[in-house]
Automatic annotation (TrEMBL):
Region forming the signal peptide: none
Phylogenetic placement of the source organism: Eukaryota, Metazoa, Spiralia, Lophotrochozoa, Mollusca
GO cellular component, as recorded: cytoplasm
Protein's name according to its UniProt entry: Leucine-rich repeat-containing protein 23
UniProt keyword annotations, A-Z: Cell projection, Cilium, Coiled coil, Cytoplasm, Cytoskeleton, Flagellum, Leucine-rich repeat, Repeat
Compartments, record wording: Cytoplasm, Cytoskeleton, Flagellum axoneme
Biased composition regions of type Basic and acidic residues, renumbered to the chain: 324-350
Region (Disordered): 1-60, 316-361
Chief place where the protein resides: cytoplasm
Domain of life: Eukaryota
InterPro entries named in the record: Leu-rich_rpt, LRR_dom_sf
Length: 361
């Protein structure tokens, strides 16, 4: 397996967007560990604002000059304008002034007190948007023709509506309050390859019909069932860590590109459920730590028997000894099963003869 595949278990952010906000503050360049985004320091949670009024603090003309950078030609090539805006962590409550800054392409609004970002709809050349750690209840914007990456993590968003931007490749909605996935248009979102929905309130995966999606992060929800996965034929990475899955129904051979599944900390207790993954032709790595099945004595051998093409389980690749042992045990179990079936057949014949004898007597 490649080095990138080896790190899948430790890093959920396998799908890194091709276009990212240029970094002036190094801490934002760090990748979060598996399980979600960085947390607000104590006292900075959104709940602190409940019951108290947030003082108005609009973005003003006086503040803007120090926040603008990256001078570039305008779209028509006739002039120059600043195309990057970084106003993160300024306690802003209003960005109406941005309606006039139509040439902006990279905007960072993270760690403010924003409840409304609709003025951004005027920025039709926007490529990258970061609006993490605000007070947003919706990610809805008018269709942005060039937007490629949008991040709305750690807000109070309850819906996936209004995110149908035709060039969008990476959408981050981690740590919000989404209960159902709705409104994601498979035609308009044909370029979307990474969808992050960790730390929401999803009970099902239904509603995610995105034909070119490659990376899907659904960790730390309350998923009890998997639905609609057969439509994700290009999916390669699926993170389902820390949910409430007991059964693994919902997979099919149509998901022909899926290589890695993280099921850590669910409620999987039987190898018969793991066997349902045998339909996935390219599955090579699987994580089942912190499930009841992982406590069984012959856990690794049992898994490789039902998934012989698997290369890695949890953090370790299968050894040659484990593969040989699994083959021998599989033969032994097949013979035992055959003998048991024969015994059952003979028993049934005896019971039928006894029944006929009793009837004729």
């Amino acid at each position: 397996m490649s080095e990138e595949e080896e790190t899948f278990e430790e890093e959920e952010d396998a799908g890194v967007p091709q276009l990212q906000m240029e970094q002036d503050h190094p801490e934002e360049g760090d990748q979060p560990e598996e399980g979600g985004e960085e947390e607000r320091p104590e006292g900075e949670e959104g709940e602190e604002h409940e019951g108290e009024k947030i003082p108005e603090n609009p973005l003003t003309q006086e503040i803007l000059p120090e926040c603008l950078s990256l001078l570039s030609k305008t779209g028509d090539g006739l002039a120059h304008a600043y195309i990057r805006l970084d106003v993160h962590e300024r306690e802003l409550t209003n960005i109406n002034i941005l309606k006039s800054y139509i040439h902006l392409r990279f905007v960072d609004l993270s760690k403010n007190n924003l409840k409304d970002i609709s003025p951004l709809s005027a920025l039709t050349r926007l490529l990258v948007l970061k609006a993490d750690f605000n007070l947003l209840t919706s990610a809805k914007l008018d269709e942005m023709p060039y937007l490629q990456m949008a991040s709305f993590s750690n807000n109070k968003i309850s819906s996936t509506e209004g995110c149908n931007h035709p060039m969008l490749e990476h959408l981050n909605l981690n740590n919000n309050e989404i209960t159902h996935v709705t409104g994601l248009d498979p035609v308009k979102l044909s370029r979307l390859h990474t969808l992050e929905l960790r730390g929401n309130k999803l009970e099902t995966s239904a509603g995610i019909y995105l034909p070119n999606l490659k990376n899907l992060f659904l960790a730390a929800n309350t998923l009890k069932q998997l639905e609609g996965l057969q439509r994700l034929t290009k999916l390669t990475t699926l993170h389902l860590r820390e949910n409430q899955l007991e059964k693994l129904d919902g997979f099919s051979e149509e998901i022909q590109s899926l290589q890695y599944i993280n099921l850590r900390a669910n409620n999987i207790s039987a190898v018969s459920e793991v066997e349902k993954l045998a339909c996935l032709p390219k599955l090579r790595a699987l994580t089942l730590l912190e499930n009841a099945i992982a406590e069984e004595d012959e856990y690794r051998i049992d898994v490789i028997i039902v998934l012989p093409k698997l290369e890695r389980l949890d953090k370790d690749e299968f050894t040659e000894d484990e593969r040989n042992e699994s083959k021998e045990l599989a033969v032994t179990r097949a013979e035992e099963k055959k003998m048991a079936q024969q015994a059952d057949g003979e028993k049934q014949i005896v019971e039928e003869v006894d029944s006929e004898t009793s009837s004729s007597g």
